[in-house]
Design goal:
This protein is an all-alpha fold. It has one domain. Helix content is 78%, strand content 0%. Helix 5 crosses helix 8. It starts with a helix and ends with a helix. The mean pLDDT is 89. InterPro entries: YczE/YyaS-like.
């Protein structure tokens, strides 16, 4: 009974974390200085087509799950399919928070930077909540893990290469669709550097919250 209660608490924590993640992504995007690396392709596509950032995020992450199946083959476990409802919720939360932040239109560059930093703090806390919940990974991280396992590479270095690849592909798509860079800017690089660092700081200084709220 205790194990079931703890598992329920962890999934609730994950659910809240997904909302916080969506809010963080939306805050960064609304800053107008680019978006987070993992969202860069969906966001760039949403600038040129009708579907929303959330819708493109859902489709893109389903593609990542399929990529995991191809990479892992027999080692792909059925529990990894939990990524599908999780990413569906995450995509919904992105669209929801983008709508809630519809009023947010920072005009000066200073305000854009402030919005970007606030977004990184929010997203970093959301990532920290995922780490504390420790029940499932989003497709982005799960794909990095799959590549790391199959090719025996370091997870951290593979993560950097993955994020860099997403950003480069988004930039190429931007030039193809708009003939100039749109959707990928300096904020994308800042988010790539800050979010993981902030999540680790939360883990270091308030990681004990897991014992209080969950265990």
């Amino acid at each position: 009974m205790t194990d079931k209660t703890e598992l329920i608490k962890r999934y609730i924590f994950l659910l809240v974390g997904l909302f916080v993640n969506g809010l963080g992504v939306s805050f960064i995007t609304k800053a107008g200085l680019g978006t987070s690396p993992i969202t860069s392709i969906p966001y760039t596509l949403s600038l040129g087509f009708t579907p929303t950032v959330g819708m493109f995020t859902l489709v893109f992450n389903i593609f990542l799950v399929i990529l995991q199946v191809i990479l892992l083959r027999r080692n792909f476990q059925l529990q990894n399919l939990l990524q599908l409802p999780i990413i569906a919720l995450f995509s919904f939360f992105i669209d929801l928070t983008m709508s809630l932040l519809g009023f947010m239109q920072p005009e000066t560059y200073a305000m854009k930077v402030v919005s970007l930093i606030v977004g990184c703090l929010i997203l970093g806390f959301g990532v920290f909540m995922e780490m504390v919940a420790n029940v499932a990974m989003l497709p982005g991280e799960a794909t990095v893990r799959a590549v790391s396992d199959v090719f025996s590479t370091d997870f951290g270095k593979t993560k950097i290469a993955f994020d860099s690849s997403m950003t480069i592909i988004a930039a190429i798509l931007s030039f193809i669709m708009f003939k100039h860079l749109d959707g990928v800017r300096e904020g994308t690089i800042v988010a790539a550097i800050l979010v993981g660092f902030i999540a680790r700081l939360f883990k270091k200084y308030i990681g004990g919250i897991e014992k209080i709220l969950i265990s």
